[in-house]
Structure formats: structure tokens, C-alpha cells
């Protein structure tokens, strides 16, 4: 069960004594390395999404940090969280809001009403945040005024993750229901020029692309889930110079990138739909895959997040079964378990 919300007085003492000595927002050029933020999606219709605070020194988690700071929850199905400048931005899909948060205190600075767009994922660039929405647009929001400036229509199906390289956004077009209620799958990435804020081209990839990150200044890493039939899942490195594609030797359910190394887990299910997650490091140049966290595999069947602390290289994994709170595991770069703590419902991302 979820912990009781920590009273504001105790929360303030924890933040001042354990995580932050200065309660002011973090300046863009002086990022805080003592704490990280844990996003938990919550259950569908449960209105129990949450943002919690991780003390990186000892691995302790202050559950429901946002709730305690605001006297309310963040909403239904928190989809994404980014730290940009001196603010946190969270998309809350079913509630159709974007929450703008002070990272020092957890207080909401503004709740942006997204109407019925269905906000999904966020990419910051040049003083703006760009948000994919299930109305098949990407929305641009100014981070000074916190106003929606424009929406760019996309020609693909429901968009998921996106990333920026140079002035371009690269957006995964995933799937949708047809007129008969059957799932149909896209196989393209939209390219959006942020200067004109128009879709300029499509790149054909595998079926149902959903996760994407920039590997470097000219390469993308894209995870395609497949159509659960004749088109299997695959994970691709795409060279933007010629749009050539190289598949990874293992398929990523989710991934992170750190120091030109791909960290991923690949989840498979048996006949009774029991999952097993296997973890790897992959060199994107040689495509050599090295198993990692093998001695901890039985503890992580419901892996739902993998993120790397950029300051230490520590590996953060959330094991998130659907029937209980998640557990956050923190491993050293060599795979030794450093800390374990209870997270929220369907913990899905750690933000540093």
C-alpha cells in the first residue's frame, strides 16, 4: 500500500537537512546532484499518479512528495517528467494537464490545461518544451509564459516519444484503433522542423515505434514494439546522414544512454504471461551486447524503468508489478546493489 503523505513540516525538514540546504529553485547552470525525482504513472482511472523524491546519498525515497507540497495529487496517469532550466514539467495523460513544478519545493507553479489532446511525452529545446499528444499533434509551449504557442499536425498515428537533434524533432508514430476497434500499427518517424514548426518528412522504421533517444549528433536509437504478429519487435540505430538502419542484437523494451553506451532491458513472457526481464549493455558502434545484472534478474521480472545517474553512472531500475507498489533498485556501474526502496504505483522514470 502507499505510504501516508508526509506532513509539510516534516517534508521541509527532510529537504533542508538531507537533500537540499538551499530551498531556492536550481539554476540551469548549477544542477542539483543530491536528489532525483521518481515518476510513478499510477493505475488507470485510479487518480494515484505521483512524484517522489530520491535522496541519492542513501537511496531513501520521500513518497508522494508532490502531494505533500500541494495538498493534492498530480492526477490520473502521469506519462512523462523532465527537468529543464529551474522547473520540472510533467505530462498527465488522462487528466489532460501539464504540471509545472518547482524542483526545490515540489510546489505547482502552474497546471496547463491541455483540453482533450492527451499529452504524452516532452522534449525541451531552445526555451520551449515540445509535447506529443494523442490528437496527432506536437504542441509547443513557451517556458517563460507557460502558454501554448502552437500545435503542429502530424501525418502518422498516435505519437509517443520524441527527441531533438539540431533544429529537428524526431517523433515516434505508434498505433491506433481502426473503425472496427482493431489495433493498427504505424511504422514511421515524423521529422518536424522547429524553426517553421512543420512536419517536413517521414522515416520508415519497424512497426509500432514508441521509444526514441539521440545517440549523438547524427544517430537515433528507436525501439519498435512490432505488431505482435508477423512483424516482430526490433531496436534500430538510424544514421541521419543517409537514413541507414542497423538493428541491435537484442530488442529493447526500454533503454537509457550513458557515455556512448546503451543500457537496456528486454522483457519476454511465458505461456502463462509471466515476465522475465534481461539486462544488457550495448556498444552502439560495434553492436556488442554484454549481459548485466544477471544475479539480480529474478528480482526484476516487472522492470518498468531504467535510467542512469549522469554524475555517477549508477543504474536505476524500477520493478513495477501491477498489483503492488514498485521497488526502486540502485546498482553501481559494476552491477552491485547499493540501495533498494519502495516507490509508487507503476514507477516509470527517474529524473536527475
Question: Quick gist of this model?
Answer:
This protein is mostly beta strands. The chain is 5% helix and 49% strand. It is built from two helices and 28 strands.
Task: Tell me what the structure shows.
By secondary structure, the protein is mostly beta strands. The chain has three domains: 1-107, no CATH class; 114-245, YVTN repeat-like/Quinoprotein amine dehydrogenase (Methylamine Dehydrogenase, Chain H, 7 Propeller); 248-352. Helices cover 5% and strands 49% of the residues. The chain is built from two helices and 28 strands. It has helices at 8-19, 65-70, and strands at 35-40, 50-55, 61-62, 78-84, 87-92, 97-101, 108-113, 119-125, 128-133, 137-142, 148-153, 159-165, 168-177, 183-193, 198-204, 209-214, 219-224, 234-239, 244-247, 254-258, 261-269, 275-282, 289-292, 303-308, 315-319, 327-331, 337-342, 347-351. It has a four-stranded antiparallel beta sheet. β14 and β15 form a beta hairpin. The protein starts with 7 loop residues before the first helix and ends with a strand. Residues 1-31 have low confidence and may be disordered.
Amino acid at each position: 500500500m502507499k505510504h501516508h503523505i508526509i506532513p509539510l513540516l516534516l517534508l521541509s525538514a527532510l529537504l533542508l537537512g538531507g537533500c537540499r540546504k538551499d530551498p531556492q529553485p536550481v539554476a540551469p547552470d548549477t544542477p542539483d546532484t543530491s536528489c532525483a525525482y521518481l515518476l510513478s504513472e499510477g493505475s488507470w482511472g485510479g487518480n494515484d499518479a505521483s512524484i517522489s523524491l530520491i535522496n541519492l546519498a542513501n537511496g531513501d525515497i520521500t513518497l508522494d512528495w508532490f502531494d505533500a507540497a500541494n495538498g493534492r495529487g498530480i492526477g490520473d496517469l502521469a506519462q512523462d517528467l523532465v527537468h529543464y532550466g529551474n522547473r520540472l514539467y510533467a505530462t498527465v495523460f488522462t487528466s489532460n494537464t501539464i504540471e509545472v513544478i518547482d524542483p526545490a519545493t515540489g510546489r505547482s507553479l502552474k497546471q496547463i490545461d491541455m483540453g482533450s489532446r492527451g499529452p504524452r511525452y516532452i522534449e525541451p529545446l531552445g526555451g520551449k518544451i515540445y509535447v506529443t499528444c494523442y490528437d496527432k499533434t506536437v504542441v509547443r509551449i513557451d517556458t517563460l509564459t507557460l502558454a501554448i504557442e502552437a500545435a503542429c499536425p502530424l501525418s502518422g498515428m498516435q505519437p509517443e516519444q520524441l527527441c531533438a537533434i539540431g533544429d529537428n524533432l524526431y517523433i515516434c508514430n505508434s498505433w491506433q484503433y481502426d473503425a472496427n476497434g482493431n489495433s493498427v500499427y504505424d511504422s514511421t518517424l515524423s521529422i518536424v522542423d522547429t524553426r517553421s514548426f512543420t512536419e517536413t518528412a517521414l522515416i520508415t522504421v519497424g512497426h509500432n515505434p514508441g521509444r526514441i533517444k539521440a545517440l549523438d549528433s547524427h544517430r537515433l536509437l528507436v525501439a519498435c514494439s512490432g505488431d505482435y504478429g508477423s512483424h516482430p519487435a526490433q531496436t534500430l540505430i538510424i544514421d541521419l546522414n543517409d537514413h541507414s538502419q542497423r538493428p541491435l542484437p537484442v530488442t529493447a523494451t526500454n533503454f537509457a544512454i550513458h557515455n556512448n553506451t546503451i543500457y537496456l532491458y528486454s522483457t519476454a513472457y511465458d505461456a502463462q504471461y509471466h515476465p522475465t526481464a534481461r539486462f544488457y549493455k550495448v556498444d552502439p558502434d560495434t553492436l556488442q551486447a554484454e549481459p548485466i545484472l544477471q544475479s539480480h534478474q529474478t528480482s526484476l521480472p516487472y522492470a518498468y524503468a531504467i535510467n542512469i545517474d549522469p554524475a555517477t553512472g549508477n543504474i536505476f531500475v524500477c520493478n513495477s508489478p501491477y498489483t503492488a507498489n514498485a521497488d526502486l533498485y540502485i546498482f553501481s556501474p559494476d552491477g552491485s546493489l547499493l540501495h533498494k526502496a519502495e516507490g509508487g504505483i507503476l514507477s516509470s522514470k527517474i529524473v536527475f
